[in-house]
UniProtKB/TrEMBL annotation:
The gene is SLC25A21. The lineage of its organism: Eukaryota, Metazoa, Chordata, Craniata, Vertebrata. This is Mitochondrial 2-oxodicarboxylate carrier. It comes from Nibea albiflora.
Protein backbone atom coordinates (compact mmCIF):
# COMPACT_ATOMS: atom_id res chain seq x y z
CA UNK A 1 0.00 0.00 0.00
CA UNK A 2 1.21 3.49 -0.83
CA UNK A 3 0.62 5.96 1.97
CA UNK A 4 0.17 9.66 1.23
CA UNK A 5 2.07 11.75 3.75
CA UNK A 6 0.31 15.05 4.33
CA UNK A 7 2.09 18.02 5.92
CA UNK A 8 0.85 18.81 9.46
CA UNK A 9 -1.07 21.90 8.31
CA UNK A 10 -3.12 19.80 5.88
CA UNK A 11 -3.71 17.07 8.45
CA UNK A 12 -5.20 19.49 10.98
CA UNK A 13 -7.20 21.34 8.29
CA UNK A 14 -8.67 18.10 6.87
CA UNK A 15 -9.44 16.78 10.37
CA UNK A 16 -11.10 20.11 11.25
CA UNK A 17 -13.09 20.10 8.01
CA UNK A 18 -14.28 16.54 8.69
CA UNK A 19 -15.35 17.41 12.22
CA UNK A 20 -17.17 20.54 11.01
CA UNK A 21 -19.05 18.73 8.24
CA UNK A 22 -20.09 15.96 10.63
CA UNK A 23 -21.22 18.51 13.21
CA UNK A 24 -23.24 20.38 10.57
CA UNK A 25 -25.15 17.27 9.48
CA UNK A 26 -26.04 16.52 13.11
CA UNK A 27 -27.01 20.05 14.22
CA UNK A 28 -28.78 21.37 11.10
CA UNK A 29 -32.26 19.97 11.92
CA UNK A 30 -32.03 21.55 15.38
CA UNK A 31 -31.00 24.85 13.77
CA UNK A 32 -34.06 24.73 11.49
CA UNK A 33 -36.36 24.16 14.48
CA UNK A 34 -34.60 26.85 16.54
CA UNK A 35 -34.82 29.48 13.78
CA UNK A 36 -38.49 28.70 13.09
CA UNK A 37 -39.29 29.05 16.80
CA UNK A 38 -37.34 32.32 17.04
CA UNK A 39 -39.16 33.71 13.99
CA UNK A 40 -42.57 32.80 15.46
CA UNK A 41 -44.29 36.07 16.38
CA UNK A 42 -46.99 34.51 18.54
CA UNK A 43 -46.92 35.17 22.26
CA UNK A 44 -44.65 32.84 24.23
CA UNK A 45 -47.61 30.97 25.73
CA UNK A 46 -48.91 30.11 22.26
CA UNK A 47 -45.58 28.84 20.92
CA UNK A 48 -45.29 25.11 20.22
CA UNK A 49 -42.65 23.00 21.91
CA UNK A 50 -39.48 22.11 20.01
CA UNK A 51 -40.80 18.60 19.29
CA UNK A 52 -44.17 19.94 18.12
CA UNK A 53 -42.43 22.43 15.84
CA UNK A 54 -40.19 19.68 14.40
CA UNK A 55 -43.28 17.53 13.74
CA UNK A 56 -44.99 20.49 12.06
CA UNK A 57 -41.98 21.07 9.77
CA UNK A 58 -41.78 17.34 8.89
CA UNK A 59 -45.52 17.11 8.20
CA UNK A 60 -45.54 20.16 5.92
CA UNK A 61 -42.15 19.88 4.17
CA UNK A 62 -40.58 16.54 5.12
CA UNK A 63 -37.00 15.74 6.15
CA UNK A 64 -35.30 17.04 2.98
CA UNK A 65 -33.76 20.33 1.92
CA UNK A 66 -37.14 22.08 2.00
CA UNK A 67 -38.01 20.77 5.45
CA UNK A 68 -35.98 19.68 8.46
CA UNK A 69 -32.70 19.94 6.53
CA UNK A 70 -33.35 23.34 4.97
CA UNK A 71 -30.11 25.29 4.64
CA UNK A 72 -27.92 22.19 5.01
CA UNK A 73 -25.35 23.35 2.44
CA UNK A 74 -24.95 26.68 4.22
CA UNK A 75 -24.57 24.92 7.58
CA UNK A 76 -21.98 22.56 6.05
CA UNK A 77 -20.09 25.59 4.77
CA UNK A 78 -20.37 27.45 8.05
CA UNK A 79 -19.13 24.60 10.26
CA UNK A 80 -16.74 23.03 7.76
CA UNK A 81 -14.90 26.25 6.94
CA UNK A 82 -14.83 27.39 10.57
CA UNK A 83 -13.40 24.14 11.96
CA UNK A 84 -10.95 23.72 9.08
CA UNK A 85 -9.36 27.12 9.70
CA UNK A 86 -9.80 27.03 13.48
CA UNK A 87 -7.99 23.73 14.09
CA UNK A 88 -5.55 24.10 11.19
CA UNK A 89 -4.44 27.56 12.30
CA UNK A 90 -4.30 26.85 16.03
CA UNK A 91 -2.33 23.62 16.00
CA UNK A 92 0.17 24.83 13.38
CA UNK A 93 0.77 28.30 14.82
CA UNK A 94 0.95 26.88 18.36
CA UNK A 95 3.83 24.64 17.32
CA UNK A 96 5.55 27.44 15.36
CA UNK A 97 5.65 29.89 18.30
CA UNK A 98 8.03 28.73 21.05
CA UNK A 99 6.53 27.81 24.41
CA UNK A 100 7.23 30.03 27.39
CA UNK A 101 8.56 28.62 30.70
CA UNK A 102 6.53 31.21 32.64
CA UNK A 103 3.06 29.62 33.18
CA UNK A 104 1.24 32.98 32.93
CA UNK A 105 2.94 33.93 29.66
CA UNK A 106 2.36 30.42 28.30
CA UNK A 107 -1.34 30.74 29.17
CA UNK A 108 -1.47 34.12 27.39
CA UNK A 109 0.37 32.68 24.35
CA UNK A 110 -2.19 29.90 23.99
CA UNK A 111 -5.09 32.28 24.66
CA UNK A 112 -3.86 34.73 21.98
CA UNK A 113 -3.44 31.95 19.40
CA UNK A 114 -6.92 30.56 20.20
CA UNK A 115 -8.46 34.05 20.05
CA UNK A 116 -6.81 34.74 16.69
CA UNK A 117 -7.88 31.34 15.38
CA UNK A 118 -11.53 31.89 16.37
CA UNK A 119 -11.50 35.43 14.96
CA UNK A 120 -10.03 34.49 11.56
CA UNK A 121 -12.39 31.51 11.24
CA UNK A 122 -15.38 33.75 12.00
CA UNK A 123 -14.32 36.31 9.39
CA UNK A 124 -13.93 33.68 6.68
CA UNK A 125 -17.10 31.68 7.32
CA UNK A 126 -19.63 34.46 7.97
CA UNK A 127 -21.02 34.60 4.39
CA UNK A 128 -22.18 30.99 4.93
CA UNK A 129 -23.73 32.06 8.24
CA UNK A 130 -25.60 34.94 6.56
CA UNK A 131 -26.85 32.59 3.83
CA UNK A 132 -27.98 30.05 6.45
CA UNK A 133 -29.93 32.72 8.36
CA UNK A 134 -31.65 33.97 5.19
CA UNK A 135 -32.58 30.45 4.02
CA UNK A 136 -33.79 29.14 7.38
CA UNK A 137 -35.40 32.38 8.56
CA UNK A 138 -38.65 33.94 7.40
CA UNK A 139 -38.68 34.90 3.71
CA UNK A 140 -39.23 38.60 2.89
CA UNK A 141 -42.55 37.94 1.12
CA UNK A 142 -44.77 35.35 2.86
CA UNK A 143 -45.49 32.35 0.63
CA UNK A 144 -42.68 33.23 -1.80
CA UNK A 145 -39.25 31.60 -1.43
CA UNK A 146 -36.55 34.12 -2.30
CA UNK A 147 -33.53 32.50 -0.64
CA UNK A 148 -33.25 28.91 -1.88
CA UNK A 149 -29.67 27.63 -1.90
CA UNK A 150 -26.40 28.64 -0.29
CA UNK A 151 -24.57 30.18 -3.24
CA UNK A 152 -27.74 31.56 -4.87
CA UNK A 153 -28.44 33.37 -1.58
CA UNK A 154 -24.89 34.73 -1.31
CA UNK A 155 -25.04 36.00 -4.90
CA UNK A 156 -28.48 37.56 -4.36
CA UNK A 157 -27.43 39.30 -1.13
CA UNK A 158 -24.29 40.60 -2.87
CA UNK A 159 -26.28 41.85 -5.87
CA UNK A 160 -29.09 43.50 -3.91
CA UNK A 161 -27.33 44.71 -0.77
CA UNK A 162 -23.63 44.85 -1.59
CA UNK A 163 -20.55 42.96 -0.45
CA UNK A 164 -20.71 44.16 3.17
CA UNK A 165 -24.16 42.59 3.63
CA UNK A 166 -22.42 39.18 3.57
CA UNK A 167 -20.62 40.30 6.74
CA UNK A 168 -23.66 41.43 8.73
CA UNK A 169 -23.34 40.43 12.37
CA UNK A 170 -19.57 39.96 12.15
CA UNK A 171 -18.72 41.96 15.30
CA UNK A 172 -21.04 40.04 17.68
CA UNK A 173 -19.97 36.79 16.01
CA UNK A 174 -16.29 37.59 16.68
CA UNK A 175 -17.12 38.67 20.23
CA UNK A 176 -18.75 35.27 20.79
CA UNK A 177 -16.47 32.91 18.84
CA UNK A 178 -13.10 34.68 19.28
CA UNK A 179 -12.96 34.34 23.08
CA UNK A 180 -15.07 31.16 22.88
CA UNK A 181 -12.49 29.61 20.56
CA UNK A 182 -9.69 30.60 22.91
CA UNK A 183 -11.46 29.15 25.95
CA UNK A 184 -12.33 25.89 24.20
CA UNK A 185 -8.76 25.24 23.08
CA UNK A 186 -7.29 26.30 26.42
CA UNK A 187 -9.53 23.86 28.28
CA UNK A 188 -8.61 21.16 25.76
CA UNK A 189 -4.87 21.84 26.14
CA UNK A 190 -4.81 21.95 29.93
CA UNK A 191 -7.20 19.06 30.51
CA UNK A 192 -5.43 16.81 27.98
CA UNK A 193 -2.06 17.79 29.49
CA UNK A 194 -3.29 16.96 33.00
CA UNK A 195 -4.76 13.64 31.86
CA UNK A 196 -1.53 12.64 30.09
CA UNK A 197 0.48 13.40 33.24
CA UNK A 198 -1.86 11.74 35.72
CA UNK A 199 -3.35 8.80 33.83
Amino acid sequence: LNHVHLPPIQIFCVAGLGSGLTEAVVVNPFEVVKVSLQANRDSFKEQPSSFAQARRIINSDGFGLKGLNKGLTSTLGRHGVFNMIYFGFYFNVKDAIPTNPDPTLEFLRKFAIGLTSGTISSCVNIPFDVAKSRIQGPQPVPGEIKYRTCFQTMALVYREEGYLALYKGLVPKIMRLGPGGAVMLLVYEYVSGWLQKNW
